[in-house]
Structure formats: C-alpha cells, structure tokens
Design goal:
alpha/beta; Rossmann fold; Helicase, Ruva Protein, domain 3; 2 domains; five-stranded parallel sheet; two-stranded antiparallel ribbon; 15% strand
C-alpha cells in the first residue's frame, strides 16, 4: 500500500520524467508537440494509439526515438496485403532434438513480442491479420498449439494509417477502432518547423538519445496514474459528453440527432477518465480537471462517432462535430456538482 505523500512525490517524478523525455525527443523531432503529448498520455494510461497522417511526417522516427528514450524494445511491421497472422504473432516450427532425434513443434515468437510495436499502414492488410494483432492488443497474449504466450510488459501498439491512398485498403471496422485509446492526427509542420526540419535533417550530425526511464519505471508510473483521484463533477462532465454523442439519447442536442448516425460507447467514457488521469499526472498534478477531459475529447472520440449522410453532405467531419458538442455541453463545476447531488 502507498500513502498520499508517496503518490504526490511519484507524480512529481513523472512530470520531471516527461520533461526529460521531451527534451531528448527534441534532438531528433521538430514540432509535433500535441502528437508527442498524446502518445505519452496513451503509454502511461496503458492504451494504444492510431496515428493518421500522410507519408514523410516522421511518424516512424518519432516512435523509434520514443522507444529509445524509454529504454523499450522496438519492432516495426510493414503491413501488406499478403501479410499473414503468423507473420505477426509467430509460428510453430518442427525441430529435431540433436541427441534423441525426436521431432517436436516449437513456437517461434513473432514481432508482436516486444514493448513498443509500430504497425505501419495497418489498413493495408486483410481483416484476418488485423484481427490477430487487435486480439493480441486486447488479451496481452498469443495462443498457439493450445498454449498461451504472454506478451512483454509494458506493451504498446502504435498503428499508422495513410489518409490519402485508400484504394486497395481494408478499413478497420468501428468495433476494432474502439480498441485504440487515441486516434491521433499527425498534421503538416508549420513554416518555421519545416525550416527547422530541413536544417536538422540535412546535416551529418547523428544525435545520441539518452534513456530517461525503463520498463519497470513505466509500469510503476502506470500504477500511480490509476491512483489519481477524480472528482464527481469531472465524472459527470465526461459522461455528459459521451452520452450527448448518441442521437437516440434524450439529452442529446438537436444537432447530434441530425448529424450523427452513431455515438460513442462506454469505453469512450472510461478512456476519457484514464487519459485525463495520465494528462494530469504528466503535468505534475494529483487531480483531474474538466480542462483535461475537454482537451482529450478529439483523440478519444473522433474514431468512435459516425457522422450521418447529412453531416457529410454539408462538409462536416467528426472533429467539427466534437468541437461543436464541447461548446454545447456545460462545464461549470457547480452545475455538474448539482447533477451528481
């Protein structure tokens, strides 16, 4: 058992570790502040991320650099239409004992047995292979030959999708998208950031990244994040936001009933709270605020709602609908506390 003082000190250390990790990443990564922040929140909340962005935005470099600063084993899978489930999880190999000459099957572990797995262009492989990875993400184990093989701890999947080349792809179903804590949009750099990228990448310098934390420390911090307290009015605000995305709910605003075909499920509420705890802890705070929840609405909800045909015909997107919704739902602490009372 830990006491409150220990948790306060642990949160302070986590905030310091975050600053140190960001400082190391700055040696190789220019910009991408929100992406780095959301990836770190997901890691300490024990979640997986879906990164959506065009090629050439340094997504692979960011993930590999993050693995190095966190002293995590890292593997990358390039998803292709001919990729099989066993190419990810592993396969049974027939081996002969050199002494007894007895033949037996031995499980050869696949690349999923790592701490940080980059699943590159996950929508380019058939559903059967996608399902094998998503099952491992959820169960944290792989079954083969009647035996379970537990994945390494900690374990995170960062999957990427290219939003512009959709021909010959296999979009993830909504139920599988729901397995990802965050859907992170990786945007183009600003003018100043692009100049910084050109200046840093076109030299002969090879920056050395220092390890800030290790796997055991990350797992300790994950437990600390889970112990962050949440006030009733914050629970109420998160629930109000998620329930308002459902067009069949009586409390849903009129624009939701018109422009949303499907709303977010209960996992969205859970993820808002868990991510809010991680965001607060990474900023050195021992409490979750309404602002934490509000700031995380886009990455948590954008892949969990489905705009209606009417919304798409008027040029509305998941992001614009969520931003409108956040403006509609009251976040006043006294009003929310009155609801819980």
């Amino acid at each position: 058992m830990t006491n409150e003082t220990d948790d306060i000190q642990a949160v302070e250390k986590l905030g310091q570790a975050r600053d140190a990790i960001v400082a190391e990443l700055r040696k190789t990564i220019v910009g991408m502040d929100d992406v780095i922040d959301e990836m770190m929140i997901a890691i300490f909340a024990r979640g997986h991320c879906l990164l959506v962005g065009v090629p050439g935005l340094a997504k692979t470099l960011l993930v590999s650099s993050l693995a190095r600063t966190m002293s995590l084993s890292f593997k990358r899978i390039q998803f292709t239409p001919d990729l099989m489930p066993s190419d990810i999880t592993g396969t049974e190999l027939l081996q002969e004992d050199p002494e007894t000459h007895e033949r037996r099957f031995k499980f050869q572990k696949g690349p999923v047995f790592t701490n940080l797995l980059l699943a590159d262009e996950i929508n380019r492989t058939p559903p059967k292979t996608q399902a094998a990875l998503l099952e491992a993400m959820q169960e944290k184990r792989v079954s083969s030959g009647g035996e379970d093989f537990v994945l390494d701890k900690p374990f995170f999947v960062l999957a990427t999708q290219n939003p512009i080349e959709q021909e010959g792809t296999y979009p993830l179903p909504e139920a599988q998208l729901d397995r990802f804590l965050f859907n992170i949009m990786v945007k183009y750099p600003s003018h100043a950031e692009e100049l910084g990228i050109m200046r840093s990448v076109t030299t002969d310098d090879e920056p050395v990244l220092n390890e800030v934390v290790d796997g055991a420390t990350i797992q300790e911090f994950q437990h600390v994040v889970r112990r962050i307290p949440v006030a009733d009015h914050v629970f109420e605000y998160a629930a109000a936001l998620v329930r308002a995305t459902r067009p069949d709910e009586s409390e849903a605003p009129e624009f939701v009933k018109r422009f949303m075909a499907w709303g977010a499920g209960p996992r969205a509420s859970l993820n808002l709270i868990l991510a809010g705890k991680a965001r607060a802890a990474l900023r050195g705070r021992c409490h979750v605020s309404v602002d934490d929840i509000r700031e995380l609405c886009l990455p948590v909800l954008r892949h969990r709602i489905i705009p209606s045909f009417a919304a798409r015909s008027e040029g509305m997107t998941s992001d614009s609908l969520i931003e409108t919704l956040v403006g509609e739902i009251p976040s006043d602490e006294k009003l929310l506390a009155r609801k819980t009372g």
